[in-house]
Specification:
Blueprint (H helix, E strand, L loop, with lengths): L8 H11 L16 E6 L2 E7 L13 H28 L5 E13 L9 H10 L12 E11 L3 E11 L18 E7 L4 H17 L4 E6 L19 H10 L2 E7 L11 H13 L8
Parallel strand pairs: 3-5, 3-6, 6-7, 7-8
Antiparallel strand pairs: 1-2, 4-5
Length: 291
């Protein structure tokens, strides 16, 4: 093989006989496209393809900061469109009954009971008032379904899908692939383990990186035995309710709820159910719901 990718003369002649045309073979840098090619095949007739003069288009170099800025704007725009689409669909159903709307949220946080079991799953099962017959095949991720009715000027029936994420999954960002299209999150921490409050902050920070501006509700697990702990007051984790509200505001939590005991009977009216309703209010743009 000759230098500069030029084929030997005998090879050129063989190519010419095969193609039945004159082909100019040069380097990649100096290659000039032919204006007419003839394609011959024993199974089809000869076809002619006109090729115009083709000039290489130069792609201008882009500033990395400009690329990041455009990506951020695109993500923000997509998120706003998603929220606007939900609200428009609700407005379009005034006075009607809506069926089949799928809303996906997930529960996360460093929250376990004294035996090492994750209390998030217990609260979800109490909220569903039934234990799922079929468990999720996804390792470290549990999924639950519930049909709920939202009452405004119309009845809205929603298919609520709840993903429950294992505590240690904050360190395995691969599970965020299951969070795609999630519209909100409940973030747990427990009073017996004050460091889990720092974990809740880190969970919220991860959500901001991976899922942008979805609303998050802070849930306090205070089901300590033999009785709930006093964690608000002088010398406690929070000095006052005002300090707790400021904490939620500073770290991007739209609301806060405290669970003091398991409640199998109340279902949607339980504290966990109230937290879910508050999150749904934020998702649908109805504002903060009074506890």
């Amino acid at each position: 093989m000759a230098t500069k990718y030029e084929l030997p003369e005998e090879v050129n002649e063989k190519r010419l006989r095969t193609l039945g045309m004159e082909v100019e073979m040069k380097t990649f840098k100096t290659n000039v496209p032919c204006k007419r090619w003839f394609f011959a095949s024993p199974r089809q007739e000869e076809e002619t393809c006109e090729l115009g003069d083709m000039k290489a288009r130069e792609i201008p170099a882009r500033n990395p900061s400009e690329i990041r800025s455009q990506a951020t704007e695109r993500e923000t725009s997509d998120d706003m469109k998603q929220q606007a689409e939900i609200r428009l669909r609700l407005q379009a159903t005034e006075g009607k009954t809506t069926y089949g709307r799928l809303v996906k949220i997930f529960c996360a946080g460093d929250c376990t009971d004294g035996d090492g079991r994750e209390t998030k799953a217990m609260f979800i099962e109490d909220y569903l008032q039934t234990r799922p017959e079929n468990r999720s095949p996804i390792i470290r991720v549990g999924s639950y379904f519930k049909l709920i009715r939202r009452l405004r000027s119309e009845v809205i029936k929603l298919h609520l899908k709840i993903f429950q994420i294992a505590d240690y999954e904050r360190f395995h960002l691969g599970t965020f692939i299951y969070h795609e299209f999630s519209l909100g999150a409940l973030v747990f921490w427990e009073t017996r383990n004050p460091s889990s409050l720092d974990g809740a902050i880190k969970w919220r920070q991860n959500f901001r990186k991976m899922l942008r501006s979805i609303p998050c509700v802070l849930v306090t697990d205070n089901t300590a035995k033999p009785e709930p702990l006093q964690w608000i007051g002088p010398g406690k984790i929070f000095e006052s309710e005002v300090a707790l509200d400021e904490f939620c505001k500073d770290h991007g939590f739209v609301d806060h709820f405290e669970i003091k005991s398991r409640d199998w009977e109340s279902g949607e009216k339980s504290v966990f159910g109230q937290a879910v309703n508050s999150l749904l209010d934020e998702i649908f743009g109805l504002g903060k719901k009074k506890k």
